[in-house]
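User: Please predict the structure of the protein below. I'd like the answer in structure-token form so I can feed it into my own downstream comparison script.

Assistant: Understood. Taking the following sequence of 91 residues as input:
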Amino acid sequence: MQRDKPVVRQHREGDGQSAGLANGSHVAFLADTREQVDAFWQTALKNGASGDGEPGPRPIYGEPYYGCFLRDPNGHKVEVMVWEEDPQDAG
């Protein structure tokens, strides 16, 4: 995957239900650091978003991945992630 360029993907809904506002799509943002992911999480929660996956590593996506998942006040899914070159050195 190219992590230095925008990527648009389309997938089937994972739950077998019809596509809708919060099913079948989400928006993802690429951060530069874990601190940016954490700050986005805190700011979003303070502004009406709800948590859908706290910030942290998700080895299922790969060792360099660190991210979080939220729902905006309208129910849209939002992901913010960073791909670290060496997650062992991350703060």
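That's the full token string. The longest helix spans residues 34-46.
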